[in-house]
Amino acid sequence: MVLRVLSRSCKLTTALAFGTVGATLYSAEAAPTHPAHSIKHAAPLGSASVRHRNAGHATSRTATDAETIKVTTRKLPTRFNTEQHVGSSTTMISSETLQQRAVITTTDIQKLAPNLQIETQYGSSALNFHLRGVGFNDLTMNNTPSVMPYIDGVAYPISSMTSGPLFDIESIGVDPGPSGFTHGQTTTGGEVRITTKAPEKQFHAGIAEDFASYNRSKTDAFVTGSITHNLQYRLAAELLEGGGYYTNRDTGQSLGDQHTGAIRGKLAWQPDEQTDVNLTGYWSLNRSEAPGFRINNNLSAFAGQYGRDLGYYQTGWDIKPAFAKLIGYHDTKPQFNDLNWGFHLAMAHRFRFGELDVSSAYDAVQLHEYQDQDGMPYATADDYRTQVANSFTQEVSFHNLKDSASRFSWDAGLYYNRIMQKQNNYYDFSDYALRGYMSETRFSSPQETFNQYVTLGYKVLKNLRFVGSISHESDSRQFVDLTTIHFGHNDLNFGTHGALANQFTGKVGIEYQATPTSLFYADIRKGMKPGGFTANNTVVAQQAQPIKPETILAYEIGTKNDFFSHRLRLNAAAFYYDYRDQQVLGNIVVPSYGSVGSYVSVPRSTIWGVEGSMEAHPTRDLILTQVVGYQRGVYDQFHSINAAQVNAYYAKTGIWQAFYSNYHGVDSGIPKISMNGSAVYTIHVLPHYHVLFDVDYSYRGAEGLIPGNPPYRTVPAYFLLNSFLTFEPNSRKWSATVYATNLADRKYDLTRSQATNVQTAISGPPRFVGGRLNYNF
């Protein structure tokens, strides 16, 4: 009888182990296998070996003898397998991919996701995120972005707080479409979620040194481990120097060198088995030189001396003594002096029926940025901007502990954000005949946002799930004491203005798990972005009036599929956006002043497109990836300034007069095609060593800005080719890499803009050749 009981117990335990293996493959993420680790050496799927503690004949065993069951599973070649069972078109990027594709700053992320643009506004630290054609250009960052950046779950409405170096990153997720239904703040365009690496229980440390062209060096280091059995730490830092590739056309001086440093510390505490407490603190300093502006076309009085730059990396700058004295500037080169720091506290407690998450964050930024936006040694558009701001975020959310077998799921929460900021924007127009003065625009802007959300999911069948979400967001912001001073001319005070948004948004969706590795989904989402203000160089009361909130009704269908034991992954999505009151940076014409920038609303426009991604592991040593995005945008109702007519009329009469054109059916100018792909091959050169060889590329289509502007504002398409070669042991304890970015040395522009009568561009980086050494302790 004892033997029968033991036999039944063994069979039951083995069966449970086999079932767990299968569930792991389809419902939880399996750790990726490095290409150097041969899959064929792993045990077959679901294999088990039974080891007896006492060797001997079965009849000699007693009821106290123990049996040990060892289950060995094959690790999946793909990453982010859990996300394959979520009905969304999220693009997930691993830390390994970020390193291999030379992603150094936040703007580099656009090389890895479809229909994504991340650009600096006039070369400043202000980042403009655009996803599926939805985005917002904001130099002063006093408005809410259409695409919200997140770091470790904390939203950053002030985008300059995310413009520092990317280091010690675990993963990045790019989520297109309206969001804010399960966390954070509502958006119309989506999210870019950056997750940094967490503390580990085992001691682990590493250092990496990277040297490249133009005297660029990048040093990364981290250390992690346990302080006690339930308290872990992680400390990571990065230092980035050099890399400036712009040259002063008159003096030969270089411009654009990086001088940034950042450090991040984390503590993870588990006071009991059901509670996690995480504390993060960070500090980042940016004293880099500003990027140079290349002259594309010069319509100013200095066109005879400084026409179009033939050298792609030429620029120029200077600062007038009077302007330097006004702003307290003690250098001649355009440069930044920016400081970011903050603390995040997150706590989670698991109850029997759900998990409670509470997080608090305080982030602060101090910006001092001087730029010569005309690219000449004349004062026609010299800009100095200061910003002192802080953001406090509090979020409380509650969700059930999701189980693949449970029919019902729910998420509910409250999000609160308060921002306090003061800004001063100085311009030197003293060499510009139409103005001839220095100016300052200053204001303060308190803001409060409160979002409440609920998301419910229900499985009507084992493989068919419905999802419904609703959120309500209220946003209140003010423009306090908005003042513009034209030194030696006049003072303009526009008083205090307010804007209030109060709207419901939501989502309904369906998910069908056709097979354990094939998901089909469809959803309809409504998103909202609050209104805001034009704050840069305000000269008329019309600029100070708030713009309306924008909304999007988004339709999406998609599918996610893994084939051939997860060796081939094919994901695809199609979308259609009904866009209302789209906020764009346009122009208004002031009769006594000229054309000035101001935010305007597009009553109605549409955006549609498709996205697809492929990841293939045809052999154990070859990995192929391909991402494709196609999108189109059209204005349905839009009357905008016709700049060509305005300029022609002024040239003829000397009078600034507004002329409008109807742009119904006109393309909105978003890049139509974005693509990136890679091939990584592992060569086993020695029994315990291997070489990784990569060739990868990225392509972005041409981008046009608001209609009615001359063609110079179209940023041409560009194609970039990169490659790397890494030698490392199978243990990956160390590695040595040589690499090249922009291998073909293509000449391309990151952005184009206009400063008074000078049309300028910021050139993209030339070919960089470098080497990287990495050692792990």
Description:
- Residues 1-30 form the signal peptide.
- Residues 84-190 form the TonB-dependent receptor plug domain.
- It is found in: Cell outer membrane.
- The chain has 777 residues and is mostly beta strands.
- 7% of the residues lie in helices and 55% in strands.
- The strands form seven sheets. The chain has a 25-stranded antiparallel β-sheet that branches. A five-stranded mixed β-sheet has the order 3-9-10-7-8. It has a three-stranded antiparallel β-sheet with strand order 4-5-6, with no helix packed on it.
- The longest helix is centred in the first third of the chain and has 26 residues, at 2-27.
- It is globular, with a radius of gyration of 28 Å.
- The model is unreliable at 1-66 (pLDDT under 50).
In short:
It is found in: Cell outer membrane. The chain has 777 residues and is mainly β. It is 7% helix and 55% strand.
